[in-house]
């Protein structure tokens, strides 16, 4: 198509405006992504690498630590995300009810963990669940057994799940609250007059109307949990005996703690990418409009 | 199938603020009652108290013969249509209309029959599988009405149902609601701020102001025989003209019209000499003939074709609205004589109450 002079000038101006952003995105996002893809095809340690083709992928399936990290991550995901989403929904519905007292206070209290310093709260959790910590005191007070929270694989996982749920429930709740506040109140008044029970109002009206937000938060939480690193690193360091080791932590270990294996670490990173992509597609498919 | 509604000394306050200040009202079975008043007068609150969406602070509410103050909204035998339609956006028209019946223990085939019947009455047959977002405003409101019909309520409550529609649709839906009422023969309580809706739909209009009833009556009662200045000014469009006047020598001296005098309307009890009163004349009561005449200068002429509204005044007076059937030739700046028959005019005392 023949370009007019005005069209060309507009094009130049347009490119001039987007160029700075494009350059930055290129250097800091696209280049690393492509480079890590190239790296994932390299084998070897430290700086002495050579092209290995799909050798790293073969190594994945034979690597027991990777398989442990993968299964730990999937356990966190499968248990923590649904619990957190349900909790966030319940809190949001309760705090959206005009009859609830001290709504502002509860809303702040539940959201606060999301903006708390990560290290501070990790230390707090570590101390609560240490062998002579608050959790042990409470459990033994009620006649429960003395549990080595961070020493047993099962309980260490429970502590991590508690920690991330505590931290991120309020964050998700805010999305639901915002969505709930956009729902016309007369819809619930109509349901009330029509004699629709509260349970049915929640499951047949609230949940379907929040579906897009639920999908969004589920995907965001899935991505977050697949990348889980900070809590584990600060509370359990992946222990005991790799029982809480996550994929991200394993990538960190491969790169910075062991003799660096950049190529293999990049391959494990791409496992997370593929998992995020596959799970997101599945979630979109489940939440699709069926009509 | 339809019940009456009785309000006895109904009150509602939010903290120290009283918004409904003792309302007594009898609504007969099958009656179409319209609550009308300016915004903030409490008409919607009153309706929501009948619906059970607002708690009743004082007084008694009866639907049929049962006292309903503490009865849950779902057990009052009412159905409500909201201004915002309040449809469930994720459900089809059919699901929207049948949703409540499921929880009332109605069997599936029965639900289908009732929903189909309501759809037939409202002409929604072709839209049953659409979602609310695929419907026009008028269609949505019809679905909302359908959702009310399928429950076979004893009383229908409408909360400004036509306010979100454009002018043309509003007229159409108004006629449809009137038709529906004659077909269903149910009691309807209808809230609006639009006095045209009130006049055209109601068997009985309740004019509210500041949480109190100003007057109750048939549309023409309120139009012809208002109790006070507020009702006189609220009912009728364009508004009634109010002229300040003083009684002197058995006639009315119009204070703002250069002391011009007009004869006193026929009254049972004439006001005292020198008393300040307000003379009310409806725009359509100005005619070519009449024993009273006002000389005025034309300011604006609105030609509606069939009807012409002239806005005119005398130096120093308020603008008068004059409806003239045929006078098409009038222009701005013309001088005209607005005549009326004193027996058409209404008189109000200083407190705004009617002098009869």
From TrEMBL, chain A:
The chain crosses the membrane at residues 12-38, 74-93, 105-124, 154-178, 209-229, 262-286. This is Lactose ABC transporter membrane protein. It is found in: Cell membrane. PANTHER family: ABC TRANSPORTER PERMEASE PROTEIN (PTHR30193), INNER MEMBRANE ABC TRANSPORTER PERMEASE PROTEIN YCJO (PTHR30193:SF37). GO terms for biological process: transmembrane transport. It is a multi-pass membrane protein. Belongs to the binding-protein-dependent transport system permease family. The keyword Transmembrane applies. PROSITE patterns: ABC_TM1. Keywords: Cell membrane, Membrane, Transmembrane, Transmembrane helix, Transport. It holds the Pfam family BPD_transp_1. GO terms for cellular component: plasma membrane. Residues 70-283 form the ABC transmembrane type-1 domain. It comes from the Bacteria. Its main location: membrane.
From TrEMBL, chain B:
SMART domains: AAA. One of its GO terms (cellular component) is maltose transport complex. Coiled coil: none annotated. Keywords: ATP-binding, Cell inner membrane, Cell membrane, Membrane, Nucleotide-binding, Transport. GO terms for molecular function: ABC-type maltose transporter activity; ATP binding; ATP hydrolysis activity. It holds the Pfam family OB_MalK. Residues 5-235 form the ABC transporter domain. Belongs to the ABC transporter superfamily. PANTHER family: MALTODEXTRIN IMPORT ATP-BINDING PROTEIN MSMX, MALTOSE_MALTODEXTRIN IMPORT ATP-BINDING PROTEIN MALK. This is Lactose ABC transporter ATP-binding protein.
């Amino acid at each position: 198509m023949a370009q007019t002079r005005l069209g060309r000038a507009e094009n130049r101006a347009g490119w001039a405006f987007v160029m700075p952003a494009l350059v930055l995105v290129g250097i800091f996002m696209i280049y690393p992504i492509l480079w890590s893809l190239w790296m994932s095809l390299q084998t070897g340690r430290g700086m002495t690498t050579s092209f290995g083709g799909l050798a790293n992928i073969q190594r994945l399936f034979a690597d027991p630590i990777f398989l442990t990290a993968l299964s730990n991550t999937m356990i966190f995901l499968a248990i923590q995300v649904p619990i957190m989403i349900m909790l966030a929904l319940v809190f949001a519905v309760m705090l959206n009810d005009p009859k609830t007292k001290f709504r502002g206070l509860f809303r702040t209290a539940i959201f606060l963990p999301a903006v708390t310093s990560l290290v501070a709260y990790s230390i707090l959790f570590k101390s609560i669940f240490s062998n002579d910590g608050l959790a042990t005191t409470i459990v033994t007070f009620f006649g429960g057994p003395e549990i080595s929270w961070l020493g047993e694989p099962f309980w260490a996982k429970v502590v991590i799940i508690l920690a991330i749920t505590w931290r991120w429930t309020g964050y998700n709740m805010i999305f639901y609250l915002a969505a709930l506040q956009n729902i016309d109140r007369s819809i619930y008044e109509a349901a009330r007059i029509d004699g629709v029970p509260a349970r049915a109002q929640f499951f047949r009206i609230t949940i379907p109307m929040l579906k897009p937000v639920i999908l969004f938060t589920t995907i965001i939480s899935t991505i977050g949990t697949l990348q889980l690193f900070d809590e584990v690193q600060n509370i359990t360091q992946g222990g005991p005996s790799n029982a809480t080791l996550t994929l991200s932590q394993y990538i960190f270990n491969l790169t910075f703690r062991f003799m660096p294996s950049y190529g293999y670490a990049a391959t494990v990173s791409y496992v997370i990418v593929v998992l995020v992509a596959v799970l997101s597609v599945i979630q979109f498919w489940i939440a699709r409009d069926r009509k | 199938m339809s019940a009456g509604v009785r309000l006895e000394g109904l009150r509602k306050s939010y903290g120290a603020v009283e918004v409904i200040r003792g309302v007594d009202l009898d609504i007969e079975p099958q009656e179409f009652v319209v609550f009308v008043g300016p915004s903030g007068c409490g008409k919607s609150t009153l309706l929501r108290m009948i619906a059970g969406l607002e708690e009743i602070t004082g007084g008694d509410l009866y639907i049929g013969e049962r006292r309903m103050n503490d009865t849950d909204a779902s057990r009052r035998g009412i159905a409500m249509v909201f201004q915002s339609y309040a449809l469930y956006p994720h459900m089809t028209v059919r699901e929207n209309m049948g949703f409540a019946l499921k929880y009332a223990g109605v069997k599936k085939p029965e639900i289908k029959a009732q929903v189909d019947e309501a759809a037939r009455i409202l002409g929604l047959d072709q839209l049953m599988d659409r979602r609310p977002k695929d419907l026009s405003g008028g269609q949505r409101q019809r679905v909302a009405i359908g959702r009310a019909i399928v429950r076979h309520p004893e009383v229908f409550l409408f909360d400004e149902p036509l306010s979100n529609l454009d002018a043309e649709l509003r007229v159409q839906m108004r006629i449809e609601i009137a038709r529906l009422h004659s077909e269903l023969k149910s009691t309807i309580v209808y809230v609006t701020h639009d006095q045209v809706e009130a006049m055209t739909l109601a068997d009985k209009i309740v004019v509210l102001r500041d949480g109190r009833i100003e007057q109750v009556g048939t549309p023409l009662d309120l139009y012809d025989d208002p109790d006070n200045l507020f009702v006189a000014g609220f009912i009728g469009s364009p508004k009634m003209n109010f002229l300040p006047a003083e009684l002197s020598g058995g006639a009315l001296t119009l204070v703002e019209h250069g002391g011009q005098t007009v004869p006193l309307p026929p009254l049972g009890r004439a006001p005292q000499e020198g008393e300040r009163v307000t003379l009310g004349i409806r725009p359509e009561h100005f005619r070519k003939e009449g024993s009273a005449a006002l000389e005025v200068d034309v300011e604006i002429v609105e030609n509606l074709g069939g009807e012409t509204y002239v806005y005119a005044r005398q130096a120093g007076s308020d603008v008068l609205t004059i409806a003239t059937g045929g006078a098409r030739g009038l222009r701005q700046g013309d001088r005209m004589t607005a005549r009326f028959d004193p027996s058409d005019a209404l008189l109000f005392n200083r407190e705004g109450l009617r002098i009869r």
